[in-house]
Amino acid sequence: MDLDVFVSAHRAEWDRLDALLRRRRRLTGAETDELVTLYQRTATHLSLIQSTAPDPHLTGRLTQLVARARSAVVGSRRASWHDVTRFLTESFPAAVYRSRHWWVPTALLSTVVAALLGWWIGTHPEVQASIAAPEELRELTRPGGQYETYYSSHPAASFAAQVWTNNAQAAAMCLVLGVFLGLPVLWILFQNMLNLGVGAGLMSSAGRLDTFLGLVLPHGLLELTAVFVAAGTGLRLGWTVIDPGPRSRRTALAEEGRATIAMAIGLALVLFVSGAIEGFVTPSGLPTWARITIGVAAELAFLSYVYVLGGRAARAGDTGDVEATERSATVPTAA
Description:
mainly alpha
């Protein structure tokens, strides 16, 4: 596309749109119709320039012009309880459901890796010796040792808040850093599985694996599921950089990126629940079976939420992105 010819052909339309937006008096019906038409045309022009002949100065001018026109056409909009309800019942579960082909395999493979690491550490004394001195290992794994007292070493409320903050940060990093081809996500995921495998292996070597699982499972099922969802979604975002499909790479990253950032908010809520379980249920005096039952119930509730509400919303066309009226205008991309 010859940019100079394109600008010459459409400059008058852009100037007219700018003039209508600067009008201080109320527009007439005909002027309002003209404003809407010029807004749609200018949005299309902007998309064409961005995809075929990007020019920073012209793109900046038209972006501002389209934003002003859009505000004039659709009006300013404030978040409402409807938005919150839609996010919790449609957008977030739909985004998690759509990513299931990424996070479910991630969860299965990660669990296998953690189990293999735990077996390797638990059956090889030389590996255990490389982790810590024998007396330190005994202090970690003995009845009433550090693995057990860790969950009750701080007041429940502050411990839950600390756990929630740390886990939410890890999940957000998995989601955001996925854009770097998913490589940082793999490292974060491995570190989590390594920590889990070390704990399982050391407690297993002391004959106390049942105690370890009784401490980890109540909160760990939901917590690890949230981490797996974040990691799988981050990997999906990384793959979008490599293969955006029929969409342009810019459009694909914008759509998937918005859904990913929104997912960070939803997962923070999920991790708040797991943090509360870890702070109040895991160190409680409840029998092991009762604590694990609470963890299993929370996990099943989340999976039902994703597969029932999320599946229904996804089949209805919800992708987890913002509503269509809130997205930038795009034009079809040639295959």
